[in-house]
Amino acid sequence: MPNFFAITSKGLAETLALELEELEMKRVNQTGGGVSFEGSWEDAYRANLRLRTATRVILSILDFPAYEPDQIYHNILKHDFTKYVASKATLAVESGVKE
């Protein structure tokens, strides 16, 4: 099952986690900025429709450690993004830092 992430405003993660549990999502886990959960694509659609405290529900497609900008670039080049976008399309990459 895919692992989704529901993004919320600061201070609402606990309320969002309760909403996800009420929707019977699996492996609900609060983290910075939101709540991760496991479910089917149908569950993700239902979450998008029913959640009141989430601003978005996203699916992470790539996760890896990188200690320098070049490592981000090279790891992204290894992934086949043509499953998601046309081969001649451009792609924006957003990265985050955890200490």
How would you describe the overall organization of this protein?
The mean pLDDT is 90. The two termini are 28 Å apart. The chain has helices spanning 13-22, 41-50, 69-78; strands at residues 3-8, 26-31, 34-38, 54-59. The chain has 3 helices and 4 strands. The radius of gyration is 15 Å and the shape is globular. It is of the alpha+beta class and 99 residues long. Strands 2-3-1-4 form a 4-stranded antiparallel sheet, with helices on one face.
Report on the biggest sheet: 4 strands, antiparallel
Portion in helices: 25-40%
Please state how the strands of the largest beta sheet are arranged side by side: 2-3-1-4
Q: Name the poorly predicted regions.
A: none
Keywords:
globular; 4-stranded antiparallel beta sheet; 99 residues; alpha+beta
Compact description:
The protein is α+β, with helices and mostly antiparallel strands. It is 30% helix and 23% strand.
Annotate the secondary structure layout.
Blueprint: E1 3-8, H1 13-22, E2 26-31, E3 34-38, H2 41-50, E4 54-59, H3 69-78
Antiparallel strand pairs: 1-3, 1-4, 2-3
